[in-house]
């Protein structure tokens, strides 16, 4: 049996799966936690990867390993390969002002969408580089190369380590899916846009080489991917599927045959990990809305679910606007969350739990609508990510989304996608291997459109932090 491994180095943790390259059967798995916060020393990802790999029985017997990771994080390296400062993550909003400046300097959002398929918001790497240039000029001066979390982990696995003896900066690699979230690579021309990096950062550091989806690095490492593109590989998404992921971020995305350029900035025009495209909407607030509400109520996640399901649809008018970390979609980096409709009869744990689940789902329903408005066909909605383990999320998603929801069997789909990429690279075939169909459960419910209507009115009523 040929074994392959897939890694998901995501915001909250690192997961490793070892699978049979041919059938996709799960052989072993492991995980380890990441530190909290929106700036993290990449060394912590490396340590977590070692711990998760050891928990998965080690990687010595696998033919290939691919790493998928959280998108957009800014990893700056100096000329000897040392990390210059802790990485700024996708959910760090300090570069919101830099994003607004860059949009204006290029002549407006449409120019950016046309150039790189994305309108800068604080999440994109290009805005973090502008922030660095303006706020930490000494660190910007020291920066000789810039890469993404999955690029850095792949480089280290393949021998790059910084200091003497490590691979050179020129050995850094990336893939289309992740580089398309930087803001300085164009999915329509498949090229870096160095003039945009120059505009943002004042210079063009060494950038990773962009390899094809099934290429191998140093003979044993897949090129890797952004975590959402890897999840699309993991669930074997097909045209007509919209995948909704409830992790730290909330995302809705679909595979597409042509690049997308949304001048409103709502939909990110990413590339996918198979040679196509991945229009995607991302929110900053998803599973942690449930974590925070459960903590507020002093209950666990299962009890939160039970409470939510015990309250009526619409929570008798109680609405929770989930902008607990500010928000990216809509672009309100300084906004805060809010609870509206509080009365004596709605001031109960059950009403608050219901409002939290419905608020989270309404923000994702808006994301699905944005994809539809750009012409994305929606034949099936697939629900994945840690938050999809919530009974309340499963039961209420079809009511709020207004359509049936497919729940694939619980699995680490980002890591699974990376393992499938590794199997593809090892096979030398033109297409990724077809692994057995996922077992899944269909959730259906009568639509509750009034829940979204009340949410739509309430989501505008938030104050800045
Ligand atoms: N039973 C559950 N009910 C609700 N949420 C859950 C449950 N189990 C795990 N989660 C959520 O999963 C989240 C982590 O999801 P994950 O997809 O691993 O995130 P990320 O990929 O961003 O690190 C946690 O914030 C936690 O709230
Ligand atoms: O920024 C995005 C997508 O554009 C996020 O989806 C990150 O890629 C983080 O993913 P999770 O850790 O929440 O899965």
From TrEMBL:
The keyword Transferase applies. It catalyses: D-xylulose + ATP = D-xylulose 5-phosphate + ADP + H(+). This is Xylulose kinase. The record marks 8 as: Important for activity. InterPro entries: ATPase_NBD (IPR043129), Carb_kinase_FGGY (IPR000577), Carb_kinase_FGGY_CS (IPR018483), FGGY_C (IPR018485), FGGY_Carb_Kinase (IPR050406), FGGY_N (IPR018484), Xylulokinase (IPR006000). It comes from the Bacteria. Its EC number is 2.7.1.17. Belongs to the FGGY kinase family. The active site is at 227 (proton acceptor). Substrate binds at residues 71-72. It is an enzyme of class 2 (transferase). The keyword Mitochondrion does not apply. GO terms for molecular function: ATP binding; D-xylulokinase activity. GO terms for biological process: D-xylose metabolic process; xylulose catabolic process. Residues 243-425 form the Carbohydrate kinase FGGY C-terminal domain. Keywords: ATP-binding, Carbohydrate metabolism, Kinase, Nucleotide-binding, Transferase, Xylose metabolism. The lineage of its organism: Bacteria, Bacillati, Actinomycetota, Actinomycetes, Pseudonocardiales. Catalyzes the phosphorylation of D-xylulose to D-xylulose 5-phosphate. It comes from Saccharothrix variisporea. SUPFAM superfamilies: Actin-like ATPase domain. Residues 4-215 form the Carbohydrate kinase FGGY N-terminal domain.
């Amino acid at each position: 049996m040929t074994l392959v491994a897939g890694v998901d180095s995501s915001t909250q943790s690192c997961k490793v799966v070892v699978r049979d390259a041919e059938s996709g059967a799960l052989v072993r798995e492991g995980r380890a936690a990441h530190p909290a916060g929106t700036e993290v020393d990449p060394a912590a990802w490396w340590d977590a990867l070692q711990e998760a790999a050891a928990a998965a029985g080690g990687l010595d017997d696998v033919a290939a390993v691919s790493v998928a990771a959280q998108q957009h994080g800014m990893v700056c390296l100096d000329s000897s390969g040392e990390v210059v400062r802790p990485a700024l993550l996708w959910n760090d909003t300090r570069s919101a002002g830099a994003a607004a400046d860059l949009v204006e300097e290029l002549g407006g959002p449409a120019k950016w969408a046309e150039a790189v398929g994305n309108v800068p918001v604080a999440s994109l790497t290009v805005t973090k580089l502008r922030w660095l240039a303006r706020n930490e000029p000494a660190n910007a001066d020291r920066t000789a190369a810039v890469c993404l979390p999955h690029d850095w982990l792949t480089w280290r696995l393949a021998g790059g380590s910084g200091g003497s003896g490590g691979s050179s900066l020129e050995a850094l690699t990336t893939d289309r899916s992740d580089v398309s979230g930087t803001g300085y690579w164009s999915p329509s021309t498949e090229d870096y846009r160095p003039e945009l990096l120059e505009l943002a950062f004042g210079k063009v550091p060494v950038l990773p080489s962009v390899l094809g989806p099934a290429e191998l690095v140093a003979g044993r490492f897949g090129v890797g991917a952004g975590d959402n593109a890897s999840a699309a590989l993991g669930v074997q998404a097909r045209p007509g599927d919209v995948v909704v992921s409830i992790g730290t971020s909330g995302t809705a995305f679909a595979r597409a045959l042509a690049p997308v350029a949304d001048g409103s900035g709502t939909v990110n025009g990413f590339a996918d990990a198979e040679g196509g495209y991945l229009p995607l909407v991302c929110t900053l607030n998803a599973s942690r809305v449930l974590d925070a509400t459960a903590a507020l109520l002093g209950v666990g996640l299962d009890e939160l679910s039970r409470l939510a399901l015990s309250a009526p649809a619409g929570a008798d008018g109680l609405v929770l606007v989930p902008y607990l970390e500010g928000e990216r979609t809509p672009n309100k980096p300084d906004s805060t969350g809010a609870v509206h409709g509080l009365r004596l009869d709605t001031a109960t744990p059950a009403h608050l739990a219901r409002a939290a689940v419905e608020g989270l789902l309404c923000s994702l329903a808006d994301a699905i609508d944005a994809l539809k408005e750009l012409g994305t066909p929606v034949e099936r909605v697939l629900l994945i990510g840690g938050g999809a383990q919530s009974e309340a999320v499963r039961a209420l998603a079809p009511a709020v989304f207004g359509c049936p929801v497919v729940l694939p069997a619980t699995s680490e789909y980002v890591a699974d996608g990376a393992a499938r990429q590794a199997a593809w690279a090892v096979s030398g075939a033109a297409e990724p291997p077809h692994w057995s169909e996922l077992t899944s459960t269909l959730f259906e419910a009568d639509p509750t459109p009034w829940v979204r209507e009340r949410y739509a009115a309430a989501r505008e009523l938030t104050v800045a932090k």
